[in-house]
Design a protein that fits this description.
single chain, 265 residues, alpha+beta, eight-stranded mixed β-sheet
């Protein structure tokens, strides 16, 4: 596998307590369809957007639930060599939740934790995964890391994935927001959360990723989400570049966000 694809977000997985309810929710809110791949034996369902499959949904393992983990979204980032990436993670103070393993027809994968504790998966695909246009409806358009030390986190991910620091935004009381990407294209941001910051239901916010799905009508999508018992965590609000965002918790408790389509011209 060539290093040229290292650092791409290629797949997004929802681990949840009720897959059928999640399929109904996201199908209504963002318009995804689903497919059940033959290799999964019925235990895994793929999300399908306008450009094809973009992720999947499966049941949150009981062992993970027993450790207190709520439903969550997990991104998969492409690397040239999973074992080499995992070795680097360990050297730099990160952890390994799922050791490297081969998944037939998918590739070699592992789930790691960065040194601050945020989880993300690394994958060396068995075959080439075509990059999708993140500006289209229903696609994941932005990836945001909330952490205890965004500067240390960025150095870790820069070494692991080759991401570039592209700009920095001063958020006032919230501190600095680092925008990063690859090959000249912005992919997301990182910020250090203020100590003691909690979700509306009183839960502490651990180091974690938030992934944004593009929608052509944010207000309509938000109305559908809240009608189906999603909780608003933050927003709606305007962000630099003229887009609007809203951060939500789905009915099973997984955090995600919606972002309006890019402003033309």
């Amino acid at each position: 596998m060539s290093d040229t694809n290292t650092g791409r977000f290629v797949w997004y997985e929802l681990l949840t307590t009720d897959t059928d309810a999640a399929i109904d929710f996201y199908g209504d809110v963002v318009g995804w369809r689903t497919q059940t791949p033959e290799w999964a034996g019925g235990a895994y369902t793929m999300w399908v957007g306008g450009q094809g499959p973009l992720g999947g949904v499966s049941r949150l393992p009981e062992a993970v639930r027993a450790m207190g983990a709520p439903p969550y979204w997990q991104a998969n980032v492409e690397v040239a060599d999973v074992d080499r990436a995992v070795a680097l993670v360990k050297e730099r103070g990160g952890g390994v939740y799922v050791a490297p393993l081969d998944v037939p027809e998918v590739g070699r994968i592992a789930v790691i934790a960065d040194p601050q504790g945020a989880a993300i998966a690394v994958v060396a695909p068995a075959s080439t995964m075509v990059s999708q246009d993140a500006t289209k409806p229903g696609e994941f358009a932005w990836n945001e890391l909330y952490t205890t030390d965004h500067e240390a986190a960025f150095r870790f991910y820069q070494e692991l994935f080759g991401w570039d620091r592209m700009s920095e935004v001063d958020l006032g009381p919230m501190g600095k927001y680092v925008v990063w990407g690859r090959d000249g294209k912005q992919l997301g941001g990182m910020l250090t959360l203020p100590k003691g910051m909690k979700t509306p239901d009183g839960r502490a916010i651990p180091p974690s990723w938030m992934h944004y799905v593009a929608t052509p009508d944010l207000d309509a999508a938000l109305e559908r989400a809240t009608r189906r018992n999603a909780r608003v965590l933050n927003g709606p609000m305007l962000v630099p570049g003229g887009q609007r965002i809203v951060q939500l918790m789905d009915p099973q408790g997984a955090a995600f966000a919606l972002i309006s389509m890019p402003v033309s011209g």
